[in-house]
Amino acid sequence: MEEISLVRLWSSFFCISTLLMLRVYSYSEYLIGLGSYDITGPAADVNMMGYADMEQVASGIHFRLRKRVVFVNIDACMASQIVTLKVIERLKSRYGDLYTEKNVAISGIHTHAGPGGYLQYVVYIVTSLGFVRQSFDAFVDGIENSIIQAHENLRPGSIFLNNGELLDAGVNRSPSAYLNNPPEERSKHKYDTDKEMSLLKFVDDQWGPVGSFSWFATHGTSMSRTNSLISGDNKGAAARLMEDWFEQNTGEREEVISDEIPRRVSSIIEYHQDSHEELIELASCFGSQPGRPAARISSSARRVRSALRKADKPGFVSAFCQTNCGDVSPNVLGAFCLDTGLPCDFNHSTCGGRNELCYGRGPGYPDEFESTCIIGERQFKKALDLFNKASEQLQGKVDYRQVYVDFSQLNVTLPKKDGSSEVVKTCPAAMGFAFAAGTTDGPGAFDFTQGDDKPSILSLQILRIGKLFILSVPGEFTTMAGRRLRDAVKTQLKSSGDKELSGEIHVVIAGLANGYSQYVTTFEEYQVQRYEGASTLFGPHTLSGYIQEFKKLSKSLVLGRTVQPGPQPPDLLDKQLSFLTPVVMDSTPGGDSFGDGISDDKTWTPVYDDDDLCLRFKWSRPKKLSSRSQATIEWRIPESASPGVYRITHFGAAKKLFGSVQHFTGSSRAFVVT
């Protein structure tokens, strides 16, 4: 028997989605399980991961971050090696050898608006002032729980695959480096970024469609480095739109062709009032009350998506996964100078010789929230189209191979034009001068040279589901680097003689998976030393090393051969240090309580929550060393909001100087929407 699990994880504003799959020999080809769990870590006072900018500190929430193979998609900047190791430890203690590093893949969507401090190597946690245990625990707990959900949800079902082009959700942010690739190679491709989205549709034998996982290349940088709200960026937004669409539009039907953006309609109070004045009079009956204690589960119990879901039906899980996005930006209007408004220098992305003023513009410029929604909506609409038209059913083996490889001095055999070969080596990890310059998505603050000697043992992994092969890579491959890797693996698989692999083979790259080691460019792109080339840690032959090792894995997979595990990565959890000032206590001004009270009036119905793009939670501390803080909740009222009486409810937590964390709840006074 073989199984597949898919997991999507979300944290206080991030999500993890998990797919678990098992092949069975019955009417249904596979057993499928999906799960989703909150992984949002601290939403205040913690540096965000992605831009490496110490000034980008979390201050609220934009929206929330959910033989066997398990694929976990996390709304995070990247997977973490130490998180992966600890998740595997927990799974082994619970399930034995059922889930291991060989058949569990954890991939990040690459949002740059999530809490940092959860990786184990210094270079990645400098800006977060070291290791942040709260972030780490949120990830490990959430990933484990999402896999448990998927495991317990295993049911007979089918998987369908579909591919299609999405043209307006990404542009190449380093075009001069791309142009350094051979002209004959570039001529094979119409675009300088990958425009294809690949989607899996999961159908339960009893309930019908229960989920979708898609892969498309675009960076999670619609939200800029000046943003301080926790956010899943454009891929997180796309997932929420897809899940909401399904919950609101399908009901008992299997398919709905409409691609309208999902909107919820208020059912708080039936709209029988004839005038605005009557609504105001009604709203005046509901004033705010002093805050009161609340159970820790109160917030999750009143979440909108929980209320919409049928108790006996699996919740629909959608994940928008990352692939070879290394040189792909969602800021599709291009890069411009802040001072002049003119396009940035083509070769160096500078303005007057400096990089700090060169920024990419998203389609909603100058509103980055709008840009996030637009790029998310474009991915959602393409995924929905592929979902509704998916007809190619996956059938066949479920299998996997995984190996640890030391990339610091890897011997790589390269073919020569005369038919001979030469052996080259990768380099010990180091970053070049241009790394510090940043990119048009987030320029560096200064120009400096940086090199860092980091552990170089990386996990390479292939998951097979019939004719679909998922390559889990611990880094960000550029467009052409990803194309070369996919082509090499396809060629290797085709030459294997496996009869199941006749016809078209599908190969997708799952980026930022099981760990993180910066970028991977082609040899030619490396010579240009744009940001991506300067961030290719193991030198100009890094890509060739990946191709060589993945060809070995592919061969062993189709021939049924075992592979040696390779050198084990270090576990540095006990050696982590944190210099982040801890929360000592929370307090309020004299005479005030935490939160505003909630009445016992049962007519109130949740209609929006912090997973909705129209609702934003902003946290601030007026004075740096003060124990007092304040929260602002903004509701950007959608045009589709139903006229009626509304109020905003907040669930929070406060720490006393002596004692445990206390949870509280409250609400605003009622107000009218007409």
From TrEMBL:
Protein name: Neutral ceramidase
UniProt domain Neutral/alkaline non-lysosomal ceramidase C-terminal: residue ranges: 600-673
Entries under Gene3D superfamilies matching the protein: Neutral/alkaline non-lysosomal ceramidase, C-terminal domain
GO cellular component terms listed in the entry, alphabetical order: extracellular region; membrane
Keywords carried by this UniProt record: Hydrolase, Lipid metabolism, Metal-binding, Sphingolipid metabolism, Zinc
Keyword Glycoprotein: no
Family of this protein: Belongs to the neutral ceramidase family.
Top-rank taxon: Eukaryota
Source organism of this protein record: Brassica carinata (Ethiopian mustard)
Catalytic activity: an N-acylsphing-4-enine + H2O = sphing-4-enine + a fatty acid
Cofactor requirements of the protein: Zn(2+)
InterPro entries: Ceramidase_alk (IPR006823), NCDase_C_sf (IPR038445), NEUT/ALK_ceramidase_C (IPR031331), NEUT/ALK_ceramidase_N (IPR031329)
Cofactor note: Binds 1 zinc ion per subunit.
GO MF, any single term: N-acylsphingosine amidohydrolase activity
Annotated residues for binding of Zn(2+): H110, H219, E476, Y519
Residues forming the catalytic site: S329
